[in-house]
């Protein structure tokens, strides 16, 4: 329905704002805090937020574009692997 009302429609504008403004702003602030306080590798917190959310989108597209619907456990495992890898990449282990 959002696509049918077009980019000028109220629903589309709210969807865009929630996904590309609110969500990224929240994650950007979160990553900036973790970079400052906990040594997270996030030279540009907004781009780090995009990297995280892009991974989620890619997993969703990969699994839900398959000819058969994935099992919940398959989705959970894929998300868990991705999040674990993201944290290991962006938050080096303390020495």
Summarize this, please?
76% of the residues lie in helices and 0% in strands. The chain is built from 4 helices and no strands.
Secondary structure elements and pairings:
Layout: H1 2-5, H2 10-38, H3 45-64, H4 72-90
Helix pairs in contact: 2-3, 3-4
Description of the structure:
- This protein is mainly α and 95 residues long.
- The chain has one domain (2-90).
- 76% of the residues lie in helices and 0% in strands.
- The protein is built from four helices and no strands.
- It has helices spanning 2-5, 10-38, 45-64, 72-90.
- The model has no long low-confidence stretch (mean pLDDT 89).
Rg to the nearest angstrom?
A: 16 Å
Which stretches are low in confidence, meaning pLDDT under 50 for 5 or more residues running? none
Average pLDDT for all residues: 89
Principal-axis shape: flat
| Helical proportion, percent range | over 70%
Cα distance spanning the termini: 52 Å
